User: Fold this.
Amino acid sequence: MNLDKNSLFFLENYINNFSPVSQEYKGQILWLEYIKKYIDQHYSDYYGNTVAIIKGNSNFKFVIEAHADEISWYVNHISDDGFIYVIPNGGSDCMIAPSKKVLIHTKEKGLIKGVFGWPAIHFRRSNKEKIIPSYENIFIDTGFNNKKNLLKAGVSVGDIVTYEENFSVLNNNYYVGRAFDNRIGGFIIAEVAKLLSLEKITLPFDLYIVNSVQEEIGLKGAKMIANKINPDIAIITDVTHDTTTPMIDQKRHGNIICGKGPVLTFAPSIHNILNKYIENFSLKYKIPIQKQACSYSTGTDTDSFAYTKNGIPSSLISLPLRYMHTTVEMIHISDVKNCINLLFNVLKDFDINFNLKYF
Ligand SMILES: [Zn+2]
Assistant:
């Protein structure tokens, strides 16, 4: 399969747009605008969880899901000399912050530019003077030289801070960008809806295409929306770590590599029969897959769906990704296509009478 021009245009826009945890609405509006022509109904809830529905031939509810939020920072303190101190909004990494360009999303005066400053190497030459970026010491410089000027410009405690980095293509193999985690999942489920619509497929169930909020602070949006929908089955999409880049111990973290296909996970929240069912589709349609195991939690919205109400059979299709939670996350183009392909074929052929009980 190939992604057409419109799909790629949407992907680039969607990734370049901002969708910080708790303020995902701009991304959600963009996503909904794109998916609208391929669906029958849609709604959103008070926190911004967004649901698109393709009506089928029964009341059986099948969810495919992604999370829409991106990690960011909150303005926490403004010093008298005009430096801004931040706290993470999601798992933002202080190690990569220094020298990054940022945008401060003020509540009333739009975007203000800034940079994460850092003492020059000349001040850090001896071991004694070694300074490591930490949540306590990283700071933003806006060029407004004091607190009064910053407040006048509209910056205040609680403003969100995001990175400026944008989408790009690396040597025709990889996409590079900010927060593919997990807006690439939003793209994948939207493309699945598009394929179902273009191929005029009527499903034997209602398909709920869910873009959840607030995953990065503990799978929170999915909890809300799983309870509301109470589906019969859920397949979650997210990203997972490519473990083959330098300094990652594969003995501890498994062997997952970009370009070798979607990843199926083995964990208590993943329903084994559903997982096997998906694996069989990968064999049937000759889509390469990889496997990983997780102790306790998958750390994804799968857990929110699985542990809702009486337990919802749930599975996870993950896309391998390099450099998670940096501004240069890398994903292989073939993996994106294979994730779309796998999910599309699972839905297209899914038998709602398939027995998901162990005994
Ligand atoms: Zn994440």
Observations:
- Residues 91, 181, 216, 325 surround zinc ion (CB under 6 Å).
- The longest helix spans residues 180-198.
